[in-house]
Amino acid sequence: MADTDNVEMVHEDELPGHESELEPKPEWEPRYPGSGRLDGKIALITGADSGIGRATAALFAREGADIAILYLCEHDDAAKTRKIVEAEGRTAITIAGDIGDKGFCEQAVAKVIETFGKLDILVNNAGEQHWDREIEDISEGQLRRTFQTNIFGMFFMTQAARPHLRKGAAIVNCTSITMYEGQPILLDYSATKGAITAFTRSLSENLIDDGIRVNAVAPGPIWTPLNPSGGQPEEKIPDFGKGTPMGRPGQPNEVAPAFLFLACEDASYMSGQVLHPNGGSIVGG
């Protein structure tokens, strides 16, 4: 399970990508000094090796949290995220495995509890996407795999974490602008993001009486390894994000503060909600 070198790649293309190989490098550095908003908290972040997950881990660490970094098989990226967290004076552990495997999720949470003794924040960030121009081009294997990672994995991880979440805990899920606007070449991916939004709202209603808040973040086009590593056609990458009102893609450190806000007590009166760091696109809430 943890810190292994033999986690099999299970995807049809080169996903998940390595941030260490991406140029230009995504911006993950927190933009401001910490203020102790997560002092003493333990956060488990899936897909924390790179992209939005790395930026969120860095920001949470700056705000005082210790971090469990979950990732599939990008050991170099995960090691860097761990060093980033440790440079903020916090403790980090790395756990490699497939969140689409219910047993792995249970083992991963058990490792977090064994190491830290508790779990306060669950960030369900990991995801995958594959582009196809026609619905007939989506193989059964890809369809099952995308749902296995993006929504089954979110269920499995939340099920494993739930017995350890107490009053005041927070769950933050990563949905997408594609859930609201649609995306003609990401039919399976956008469908999972719709499921995640519905899951977020329903789980909020399910857990709110126990004092556990559940919210989500719906990023627009963000420069991470996901898109240039097979999540978008190669010819679209030079113009990636230019269709937003701001005319550019976002950076991971422009999304991480939304996760922080929803995870900390600043958002104590928010549950079942979705924040939209998307470069100015207006979407239905």
What do these coordinates show?
By secondary structure, the chain is α/β, with parallel strands linked by helices. It has one domain: Rossmann fold. Helix content is 36%, strand content 11%. The chain is built from 8 helices and 7 strands, in the order βαβαβαβαβααβααβ. It has a 7-stranded parallel beta sheet with strand order 3-2-1-4-5-6-7, sandwiched between helices. Helix 1 (51-62) packs across helix 8 (252-263). The model is unreliable at 1-13 (pLDDT under 50). Residues 1-34 are annotated as: Disordered. InterPro entries: NAD(P)-bd_dom_sf (IPR036291), Sc_DH/Rdtase_CS (IPR020904), SDR_fam (IPR002347). Keywords: Oxidoreductase. Residues 8-30 have a biased composition (Basic and acidic residues). It holds the Pfam family adh_short_C2.
